[in-house]
Amino acid sequence: MAPWLTDWRGRYRGQALAILSPSTTDEVAAVIKLAAKHRVAMVPQGGNSGMVAGATPDASGQSYLLSLRRLNSIEAIDQDVRLVRCGAGVILQNLHDAVSKHGLRFPLTLGGKGSATIGGLISTNAGGTQVLRHGTMRSLVAGIEAVLPDGSIYDGLTPLKKDNRGYDLKHLLIGAEGTLGIVTRATLHLVPALIERAVCWVAVGSPADAYQLLLAAQDECHGMLEGFEILPDAALAHVVKHIPGTRAPLESAAPWHVLIELAKDSADQEAPAQLAERFLATAMGKGLALDAAISANEAQAEAFWKIRDSIAEAERAEGPALQHDISVPVSDMARFIDTESPKIEATYPGTQVIAFGHLGDGNIHYHVKAPHGATAENWYRDFATRISADVYDRVVAYGGSISAEHGIGQAKIAEFARTSEPARLAALRAIKNALDPHGIMNPGKLVPLASAGLDA
To answer: Where would one find coiled-coil regions in this protein (predicted)?
Structure first.
């Protein structure tokens, strides 16, 4: 059980009575009925690749891990209406491979696609690198089946365009982190497979220049803009240092880099490479870009994306850091990075801010790295709470969110309670208590409940 009792980052470790591994929705329902009867806590888990310890049990050892990995059937792929129905335990990469054989794709991807499961992605409302064009998981879910806290089965798999029967349980369950029920199956939207794409690596002088480049791309790339990512040169250096097979795409040095993907999935669209070449020539003429490279083939496109997808792994290898998954209005993100990062580094001498991610949707992964030579355990103990609170206070001052796509889990629950307005917390608690009155569904995650808990 040991690998499943620790979160992906290795910062949280819990205990559990056992791991339960049902293979059908009926088996999940039977387990939850027993849990409800005996007031036993259940911690649902998919690929265990989450970033906020939302699938890690607490240290009491009084809960059960409920693994959904055996619910891994891809049941139906409908090419005509572009839908797939599958189990919660399906690994994202396996779904990509399956639908590609039908000339389709599921337009959500992320660095952990080899381990992340559909149920986990739904339960955290995952985003990834293609949100700019296709939205978060919430936009891609057409229907859900779930087991509710009393063991009853909610069947919402049918992909209805209109359904006005009151509260939308589907959207309550998306992003609920398993605190309101266990997602067992889903119907998901698909899009046509790519005909071709162009991935561009662009050197820029600042986040402000990157934002202006984003605005230009949105105006000039005719709905083909699939991804727009930003990363500092330090992040690139860490990837090249720690990830075999990677190298800097450009010979010239630059303080910041942007990764742009233009995708063609319809015959009437322009060739992406041609559009990219024209767009970047204009951007460089306006001083928005310092240098650029356009992928010459699919292997080079994958190599560019491997750099971006490997940043989290490289940062972990580089040393301890506090990771913050934040969002502010898109128009304010460049200002946030430029203005707040030097203040954080000055307040905590020796630290380094590594800000990277989805500039196009205002979501940045804001890492504060420990000073060189710092011992992880001591640094986390002495500085984690103070630095994170400082970062989140600055985010809130911009009208932003302390969790853009990773969720709250247990890692952020105290800060979520501290920084949230009373109305939001009261509503969340009311919903949680109404659907899960015994507090058995993933306790201690997402919802800061002062009075909830398991009966003795």
So the answer is: none
